[in-house]
Known about the structure:
- The chain is of the alpha+beta class.
- It folds into two domains: about 90 residues, GMP Synthetase, Chain A, domain 3 (2-Layer Sandwich), CATH 3.30.300; about 35 residues, no CATH class.
- About 60% of the residues lie in helices and about 15% in strands.
- The longest helix has 23 residues.
Amino acid sequence: MPTRKLSALIIDNAGLTALTQATQCIAALQRLYAVCAPPDMVRASRVVNNRNGMLVIAADNGAVAAKLRQQAPRLLKNMQKQGGEVTGIRVQVQVERTVPTPRSRVEKTPLPIDSIDKFEKLSKQVKDPALASALARLVARRRSER
């Protein structure tokens, strides 16, 4: 089977050509948006669509969306001055999927030996068998850590 360049395959397929053009349009609007919008808003939002001149911006949370809605008229004027073919701005909340950061393990500080002895004494004095058993397990676990 002869090899072909990826660009040739995209040109031959009409569906991929339309998708490529739409992606390039959104990428250009994202660059324009990054120039016209405040940097903190750009980090918390992104251009997701352009429907007949109506720019759709997705915000990471409601607070960012509210701030963008307040700034929409000024942002629209700035984008039009920069040559963007934008007739309106619509803001929607769309949380960006992020990879959760692993939690760091909390270092356990060892109990002093006299506290362990007091827990052991308490486990023998308690009348509730479930509590006595829990205290005994605590004592055994803490003694094994030493």
